[in-house]
Amino acid sequence: MASKALAEAQLLGAMWKELVFRFVIGGTLVSAFALIGDLFRPKSFAGLFGAAPSVALATLALTISREGRIYAALEARSMICGAAAFFFYAHCVSWLMMKHRIKGLVASSVSIVLWAASAFGLWFVWLART
Q1: Residue-level pLDDT at 39
Q2: Which of 7, 21, 75, 95 shows its CA 20 to 30 Å from the CA of 64?
Q3: Are 88 and 114 in contact (CB under 8 A)?
Q4: Average pLDDT over residues 89-109
């Protein structure tokens, strides 16, 4: 019974260390990317350097420390596929709204199907066979 309590305490301690690591690394990277974003014009471009790149880097750093570089490389490829699919989705929503004057809810609802198809397609072509 004591060994079970000890194992639970160690698991809880490891969880807190991981949370602190994520907080410190993520916060540092968010601040660094926000600083980079402030250097560019227009200011709307600064959002590109917001949370997503810093969270991705913090996640990769944590993955490398826990699972190793090979697993992190696979995760990085998955992130690249996700980013490409999101870019396609954002492009389609923007095109539908600006060119055809379709409302945002309709454009995003239609484009989410295209996002799913592109994400699955990229996964199948690039990642499923590895």
Answers
A1: 76
A2: 7
A3: yes
A4: 92
Amino acid identity of residue 6, one-letter, is L
Which amino acid is it at 111?
S
Give the C-alpha separation, 3 to 39, whole Å. Answer: 54
CA-based R_g, the chain, Å: 20
Alpha carbon distance 121, 25 (integer Å): 32
The 8-class DSSP code of residue 128 comes to: T
Return the H-helix or E-strand segment holding 77.
helix 69-99
Angstrom distance (rounded) from CA 86 to CA 79: 10
pLDDT digits (tens, 9 = 90+) for 45-85: 566 666 667 778 878 888 898 889 999 998 899 889 888 99
pLDDT band at 43 (very low <50, low <70, confident <90, very high): low
DSSP 8-68: HHHHHHHHHHHHHHHHHHHHHHHHHHHHHHHTSSSGGGGGGGSHHHHHHHHHHHHHHHHH-
